[in-house]
Amino acid sequence: MTPPTSDPRPTDVGPDAAPSPDAADSPEPVTEPVTEPVTEQVTGAVAEPASGPDGEHARPAATPLLTPADGIPDVVTDERTLVAAARALAAGTGPVAIDAERASGHRYGQHAYLVQLRRDGAGTWLVDPVACPDLGPIAEAISGVEWVLHAATQDLPCLREVGLHPTALFDTELGARLAGLPRVGLGASVEHYLGLSLAKEHSAVDWSKRPLPDPWLRYAALDVEVLVELRDRLDADLHAQGKGEWARQEFAALVDFAGPPVRVDPWRRTSGMHKVRRRRTVAIVRELWLARDRIAQRRDISPGRVLADAALMALALDPPKDAAAIGSSPQSRSAARHGKAWIEAIQRAMAVPEEALPPLTLPSNGPPPPRLWPDRDPVAANRLADAREALGAFAADHTLPVENLLSPDTLRRALWTPPKALSEAAFAETLSGLGARAWQVEIVAPVLATVCRATA
Fold first, then answer.
1. Which class in CATH covers the domain with range 370-455?
2. Secondary element (H or E) of residue 405
3. C-alpha to C-alpha distance for 179 and 281, rounded to whole angstroms
4. What are phi and psi of 66, to 5 degrees?
5. Bigger pLDDT: 64 vs 58
6. What is the dihedral of CA 368, 373, 379, 383, to 10 degrees?
7. Residue 122 CB coordination number (10 Å)
8. Dihedral sign for Cα atoms in the order 73, 78, 83, 89
9. Can you tell me the distance from the alpha carbon of 373 to that of 368, in angstroms, rounded to the nearest whole number?
10. What does the pLDDT look like over 240-281, one tens digit per residue?
11. What is the pLDDT of residues 194-218, one digit of tens each?
12. What is the pLDDT of residue 32?
C-alpha cells in the first residue's frame, strides 16, 4: 500500500536514523517537574478558563500527571503472565490504548523493546517483547478492537514485527493535526484537551536496557494512561468541526501501514553528501556506509555510534592511505577504532572501474523542484502558485494544515503533468491514482480543474 499522503511527518526510521527522540515523544513545553513523591493521580475535566487580557481566555496551568492510577505495573516477561494479560485485555471494554518504546539512536534498527497496552476494565500492561517474542495471545485478545495510538506511523512497523496488527485505529497525533492544534505532540494534545501535563524526559533513553528502571516504567505507563480519554475528546472535536469523516478515512488508510518505502541507495542520505563532486568519492561514501552498516548490525548498535556521518564524510573527501593515517584530523579521529575496515572499504571503492562508478545523483521519477518550474514551464509554475494559494485559503478557513489537505508531492505531480481533459472528473482520477483519500479528492479536484482551465 502507498504510505498515506496526508501524513507530513518524517517516516524514515531505518537503521541509519539519527539519535533523536521518537517523533511521537518529541519534548513539549511542560510545567516544572515536581520532585516530591506523589501517591495520587489527578484526572478530570478542564475547568472553564478565566478571561485574560483583551477579553481572551487564559488557559489554566496544566496539572502534572505523575503516577498511573493503578501504580506502576510489573513487566510481563513470561508466557503465563502474558496469557493473563491477554485474558484481561479480552475481558476489557472499548478501544485499547497501545504504544511501543524503541531504542532509536542506541540499537540497530527500530525494534520494539517495550509494548504498553491499556483498556477499560483491564488496566495497564507492560510487555517485554524480547522476553516474550510471540505476542500471539495479545494479538488474539485485541483482534477487532480499535487501537488508539499517538503518531501511528512511528509504532506500527515495530508492532507488526512482534505480531500485532490493527484492524481499526485512531491516531491522536493525526487527529490533532486535522483538528487544527498548533502543537500535536502527545504532551501538547493531552494538555489541550485534558488539562494535564506529561513529562517526556525519558523519550530518548535506551529502552533495550534491562532491567528497566522504575522511572522509565512510570513514564511508559503514563503514555497510555489517558490515551483513550484523549481519543474521545479529539473525536468529539473533529465531529464538531465537520471533520469526522476526514479523520475516519485517514485512520483507515493507516491500518495497513508497514513502514516507509524501501529507499534506493539509502547511503545517499549521509549528511554532507552535498559536498561530493566526483563519482569516485560517491563510491567511497557507499563502501564506507555499507561497511559501517555491517559493523552496526553485527554489534546491534546505531550506525551513528560506530561512525558519525561527519567522520565518514571526512574519510571520503580526503581518503587516508593506510590505517595509521586514520585519526590524524579531528574530524576522522573517531574512525580509528575500525581503521582496517575503513581502509578496506576505501580500497574497494578505488578498485571500481570508471564505467561502473555510481552516478553523482539518481534520476528523479517526479517533477523538478518548484524553484525550477518558472524556467522549465512558466504555465505550470503559474498553476502551481494559484493552486497553492487556493488550497492554502481553504486550509486556513478550516483550521487545517495544508499538507494534510493534500501532500505537496501529490500536488506537484498532479500539476506538472495534468490530465488532458482539465475536468473535475479527470483530476479526481489523477488524485485517486496518486493515493489521495476520497475526502481530499472531493475538495481538491475542483480547485485544480478551475486553476488549470484559468491558466491554460
1. mainly alpha
2. helix 402-405
3. 47
4. -110, -25
5. 64
6. 80
7. 21
8. positive
9. 7
10. 999 999 999 999 999 999 998 889 999 999 999 999 999 999
11. 999 998 788 889 999 999 999 999 9
12. 33
**126 pairs with which residues across the strands?**
75, 116
Residue (of 206, 37, 227) closest to 150 by Cα position: 227
End-to-end CA distance of the chain: 34
Radius of gyration of the chain from Cα atoms? Answer: 25
Q: What is the pLDDT of residue 443?
A: 98
Q: Tell me, what's the pLDDT at 57?
A: 56
Helix, strand, or coil here: 63?
strand
Please say whether the beta carbons of 179 and 133 come within 8 A. Answer: no
Query: Residue 297 gets which letter from DSSP?
Result: H
The answer to whether the Cα torsion of 194, 199, 204, 205 is positive or negative is: negative
Locate 354 and state its grid cell. Answer: 570508471
Look up the pTM and report it: 0.84
What would the grid cell of residue 131 be?
A: 522476553
| Domain covering 266-356 in this structure, CATH number | 1.10.150.80
CATH fold for domain 23-254: Nucleotidyltransferase; domain 5 (3.30.420)
Task: Return residue ranges of the chain for CATH 1.10.150.80.
Answer: 266-356, 370-455
**Residue 36 CB neighbour total at 10 angstroms:** 5
Residue 125 Cα distances to 81, 114, 274, 329, angstroms: 10, 10, 47, 50
Reading the block at residue 95, the C-alpha cell is 478501544
- Segment 359-365 mean pLDDT: 91
As given in the structure block, the three cell numbers for residue 387 are 493552486
Provide the pLDDT confidence category of residue 326 given band limits of 50, 70 and 90. confident
Residue 136 identity (one-letter amino acid): G
Task: Provide the b/e sequence for 279-289 (b: ≥16 CB within 10 Å).
Answer: eebbbbbbbbb
